[in-house]
UniProtKB/TrEMBL annotation:
<dbReference type="GO" id="GO:0009805">
    <property type="term" value="P:coumarin biosynthetic process"/>
</dbReference>
<keyword id="KW-0479">Metal-binding</keyword>
<comment type="similarity">
    <text>Belongs to the iron/ascorbate-dependent oxidoreductase family.</text>
</comment>
<dbReference type="InterPro" id="IPR044861">
    <property type="entry name" value="IPNS-like_FE2OG_OXY"/>
</dbReference>
<protein>
    <recommendedName>
        <fullName>2-oxoglutarate-dependent dioxygenase DAO</fullName>
    </recommendedName>
</protein>
<dbReference type="GO" id="GO:0046872">
    <property type="term" value="F:metal ion binding"/>
</dbReference>
<dbReference type="InterPro" id="IPR027443">
    <property type="entry name" value="IPNS-like_sf"/>
</dbReference>
<feature type="domain" description="Fe2OG dioxygenase">
    <location>
        <begin position="144"/>
        <end position="248"/>
    </location>
</feature>
<dbReference type="InterPro" id="IPR005123">
    <property type="entry name" value="Oxoglu/Fe-dep_dioxygenase_dom"/>
</dbReference>
<keyword id="KW-0560">Oxidoreductase</keyword>
<dbReference type="InterPro" id="IPR026992">
    <property type="entry name" value="DIOX_N"/>
</dbReference>
<keyword id="KW-0223">Dioxygenase</keyword>
<dbReference type="GO" id="GO:0016706">
    <property type="term" value="F:2-oxoglutarate-dependent dioxygenase activity"/>
</dbReference>
<dbReference type="Pfam" id="PF14226">
    <property type="entry name" value="DIOX_N"/>
</dbReference>
<dbReference type="Pfam" id="PF03171">
    <property type="entry name" value="2OG-FeII_Oxy"/>
</dbReference>
<comment type="function">
    <text>2-oxoglutarate-dependent dioxygenase essential for auxin catabolism and maintenance of auxin homeostasis in reproductive organs. Catalyzes the irreversible oxidation of indole-3-acetic acid (IAA) to the biologically inactive 2-oxoindole-3-acetic acid (OxIAA).</text>
</comment>
<dbReference type="InterPro" id="IPR050231">
    <property type="entry name" value="Iron_ascorbate_oxido_reductase"/>
</dbReference>
Length: 300
């Protein structure tokens, strides 16, 4: 039997679009978007800015610091010795782009591209949120005012790293991630939740990948799959990617809306604070979402 492949969703095909997105979140937790509305030229410009910023000397990249791990520059480390990433945390907060660009000495043009691209993805995230609400028969807004994190990633591959892991198997802690993967250098692999098999998420130029994270599993009362994924080194070529992480509510607990809880579907997780969960994921060394077990409701 042939391996299943990650769903591809056309955002311009409005027939049953909300239901298709919900189904992809339930069955895979990973899908690829075509005709998503982010201009191709802007995606190419952002890729160029990412390459130039990631090529900066280490001492400049290290100025992209943050008091909390994972919210600033991530240098190569024991777990991922070929991976590094720059990070702009809470991109909609006042002065976020000015602060990041002053850290890495970005030019006015680079800042303009960063801001345009980040907000194009932010708008796409809001659209995805509205489709999820619609597809589940809910009302209200999803993702409004939620902090989002923009990350630029570089995998420093060489002949010696072929066949090795660039980013270890993990789930994303937040609700969802919109990823511009490398359109030339493959390497992203996702776990098929039904078969348990690793499936290569092959690049399609001009498209975006959506990964569903731990917060979405809790918010959906267990309906959505927090996809396990990793990045492998297939060839000795530098690989870059850009990700927007839609994290969790800022001033509210993470919990399933009451409309998704009933006698047939009792509440699976107790409400929790996202930052507490993020720290627990780290302290319990639970990169694949295992720390969610600490928040299981007693009846689950």
């Amino acid at each position: 039997m042939a391996k299943r492949s990650v769903p591809v969703i056309d955002m311009q095909d409005f027939s049953g679009l909300a239901e298709k997105i919900v189904r992809a979140c339930e069955e895979w937790g990973c899908f690829r978007l075509v005709n998503h509305g982010v201009p191709m030229e802007l995606m190419a410009e952002m890729k160029g800015v990412t390459r130039s910023l990631m090529d900066l000397p280490m001492e400049i990249k290290q100025k992209n610091s943050h008091p909390e791990p994972g919210k600033g520059y991530t240098p190569p480390n024991m777990a991922s010795p070929y991976f590094e990433g720059l990070s702009l945390y809470d991109m909609t907060s006042p002065g976020a782009f000015d602060h990041f660009c002053s850290q890495v000495d970005a030019s006015p043009h680079q800042m303009e591209v960063l801001e345009k691209y980040a907000f194009a993805l932010y708008d796409l995230a809001q659209l995805l949120g509205s489709k999820l609400v619609e597809g589940l028969g809910l009302s209200g807004e999803l993702f409004k005012g939620w902090p989002c994190q923009l990350k630029m990633n570089k995998y420093n591959y060489s002949h010696e790293t072929v066949g090795l892991t660039g980013a270890v198997m993990h789930t994303d802690p937040g609700f969802l991630t919109i990823l511009q993967d490398d359109e030339i250098v493959n390497g992203l692999e996702a776990v098929d939740d039904i078969t348990g098999e690793l499936v290569s998420v092959d690049p399609i130029p001009g498209t975006l990948v959506v990964n569903v994270g731990d917060v979405a599993t809790v918010w959906s009362n267990g309906r959505f799959c927090n996809v396990k994924h990793r990045v492998q080194c297939y060839e000795p070529t530098i690989r870059t990617s850009i990700a927007l992480f839609v994290l969790a509510p800022n001033d509210e607990k993470v919990e399933a809306p009451p409309q998704l809880v009933d006698s047939d579907h009792p509440r699976r997780y107790i409400p929790f604070d996202f930052e507490d969960y993020r720290k627990l994921r780290s302290s319990t060394n639970s990169p694949t979402g295992g720390a969610l077990k600490y928040f299981l409701a007693k009846s689950s």
